[in-house]
């Protein structure tokens, strides 16, 4: 999951949502899809939080905008 890009994770999550909304397939598959979707959502949220931290780290320095160290 960690190697999955934000865009790929979001696209897969959107596909899962469409599938679940369609109501096709077995209950077992719906549960597996839901679990995968929850993991993808967490991955997307984590990736967005990291991106937000990087954006927030931009500060004006004497030479113009620079990035502070972000853990």
Automatic annotation (TrEMBL):
Pfam families to which the protein is assigned, alphabetical: Exonuc_VII_S
Domain of life: Bacteria
Alphabetic keyword roster: Cytoplasm, Exonuclease, Hydrolase, Nuclease
Transmembrane residue ranges: none
Catalyzed chemical reaction(s): Exonucleolytic cleavage in either 5'- to 3'- or 3'- to 5'-direction to yield nucleoside 5'-phosphates
Compartments reported by the entry: Cytoplasm
Entry-linked InterPro entries: Exonuc_VII_S, Exonuc_VII_ssu_sf
UniProt-listed Enzyme Commission number(s): 3.1.11.6
Gene3D superfamilies to which the protein is assigned, alphabetical: Exonuclease VII, small subunit
UniProt cross-references to HAMAP family, sorted A to Z: Exonuc_7_S
Family to which this protein belongs: Belongs to the XseB family.
Function: Bidirectionally degrades single-stranded DNA into large acid-insoluble oligonucleotides, which are then degraded further into small acid-soluble oligonucleotides.
Description of how the protein assembles with itself and partners: Heterooligomer composed of large and small subunits.
NCBIfam families attached to this UniProt entry: PRK00977.1-3, xseB
Protein name: Exodeoxyribonuclease 7 small subunit
Source species of the chain: Paracraurococcus ruber
Lineage of the organism: Bacteria, Pseudomonadati, Pseudomonadota, Alphaproteobacteria, Acetobacterales
Gene name of the record: xseB
């Amino acid at each position: 999951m960690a190697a999955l890009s934000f865009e790929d994770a979001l696209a897969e999550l959107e596909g899962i949502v469409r599938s679940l909304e369609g109501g096709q397939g077995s209950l077992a598959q719906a549960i597996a899809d839901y679990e995968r979707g929850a993991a993808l959502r967490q991955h997307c949220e984590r990736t967005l939080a990291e991106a937000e931290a990087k954006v927030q780290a931009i500060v004006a320095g004497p030479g113009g905008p620079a990035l502070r160290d972000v853990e």
